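Supplementary Methods, section 5.1.

A reviewer requested that the exact input to the structure prediction be made available. We therefore reproduce it here, unchanged from the version used in the analyses.
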Amino acid sequence: MHPHKPFTALGAVATLCLLFTHLSTHAAGMIPETPVVVVDQALGEATLNVRNSDDQPALLYSSIEHIAEDDEPLLLLNPPVARVEPGQSQQVRFILRSAKPLETERLKRVVLEGIKPRQSTSDAHVSLGIRQNIPVILRPANLAVERMPWKRLVWAGAGTHLQVSNPSPYVVRLARSVNLIPGGATLDLGRTYILPGEVLSLGAPSILGTHVRLFPATTYGFAVGSYDAPLSLRE
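The structure derived from this sequence is encoded token-by-token as follows.
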């Protein structure tokens, strides 16, 4: 960890582009219509349209990827494999199979990969398209939509440690680096999300500041610029 790296606006923009920009009009391969999938338990499922932007047919392989903190198998995909013609779209269903009501939002990821057909029977190579990996948020039934869940994070500092907790039922997605204000010292969260009920601790040479500047994204994957959260200092 290098907490003294100077903060630059250009660096923040580059980080946000890497984290939150998944789609491009010039991208090739299988392109999802949205950068995030939200599955509401009240509905039991959600759908995602994936377009084959190449000029030849390809097989779309879809799979659920668990985050390190939550490996419970809560989702089924249908179909896991489908042939998609050039310029056409395939609908992928996300089916929630939790046996009990969700108490908080849960975070998964879906991997979408296109495999092009062999050019000839003698061709032993498999051509892979651009691999898409996007978040899937599972939402409890009747949980109100929270447009700015990052405002519910609680930041506190003491000595050489900064702690952030998420007492809310919402998944908070943000750039993995935050800055102490004033001063601009950069701290690394280690990942781009904070789960409901989590408490993360970050090391720093000293906690001097009044606010923490973070770069959040909405539930649906759109970056919203920076937000300065109040920082409480403890003895």
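The chain is about 5% helix and 45% strand. These observations are discussed further in the main text.
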